[in-house]
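1st attempt posting a full record on here, be nice pls
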Amino acid sequence: KGGAAFDLGQEDALKHLVFTKGSALFSPSYYQTQEKEIFEYSRALLKAEEAEAGFAWKFAAFMRDPVKGKGNRIQGTVAPAILAAAHPDSPFVEEYVSKCLSHRADDLVKFVSHFTNLSLGAISEPARKGMARAINQFDEYQILKYAGRQYPLSKRRKNGRRASLRLVDALGIA
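the predicted structure (as tokens):
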């Protein structure tokens, strides 16, 4: 508390994404809400992709990779969802969706849940192919490990209870 925060500005979209928004946690804080944090991250991500095609995709893969990158699970699934929704016909979609989702089987569920929770629309065909490539890299144990878990969605069912998503649902989409 009380420390100074610096925003490198949006003049250089690539630096802004990496150094200012690259540490986003997407949790409510004293300074801003979770919704505003995700909105600003999305805007920075899309501006970086506009400035240099493929950069935001590579950044997302780096953020998710636990060995060569930061191993950030939330940004590694939010970023490809936002980019795949904004640029469904991009040549990077299939390859980088696969790279971002190939570290844990439950990353696929999180990816699909971001489409629902952020109202990003339908998942494009190249993104589905990337999901399928990612799931093919897992063995039976890795898939069964997350098969029974339910991941909450922001929407509610008719009975008022919160809707959820399971790995089998994500596999059906892929």
